[in-house]
What we know:
five-stranded antiparallel β-sheet
Amino acid sequence: MFVDKLHLQKLAIVGQKRIAFSVCALLLITNFLLVMKIYSMEEKIIITPVNMKDSFWVTNSKVSEGYLDQMIPYFTHYLLNIHYENFEFHVSFLMQHADAYYMRDIFYSIQKLKETYTRLRMDTVFYPENIIINDKDLTAVISGKFIAFVSDRKVIEENRKYLITFSYLAGALRLKSFNKLDENNQPETTNQIDSLGNNQPRG
């Protein structure tokens, strides 16, 4: 009787060890798979304005219209709301977020604009009123009131439309072009950012 009880106890201990071993092995495999998944994931840094108001989604290759709707005024701020003494700050932002393929054109266009703003001591501001977005092509037409000042004197106040185009890959929204549109909604120039040169006061 005593031997049978001892044998049963040994069997129970062996069974518990087997269960514990199986659980440990399962946990090790699970942890290994989790670690592999974490290492295989691509880290993404999503650029967003400070005051994001609406929800949005992004994937490796697409963004939602809601994301563009909030990012376009953010980029437009750096493209049009410019004080000649802070131009370098705008240059830094735009070059950090420029599409690599268009970076050279954008850089030279911005430097040309910098000379104009500095020479005229010019400030500009833009008040967006409407945005028409094509989320498939990553383009948008943004319209609103544009005002320019030279030495604190208002020299331009008019309604304008701009076409802004982006590229996107794995969380990075990049600026490709930004052009002022004419009355027929056609770009006034084919050069990147060059249409901002039309901010110069006439006559």
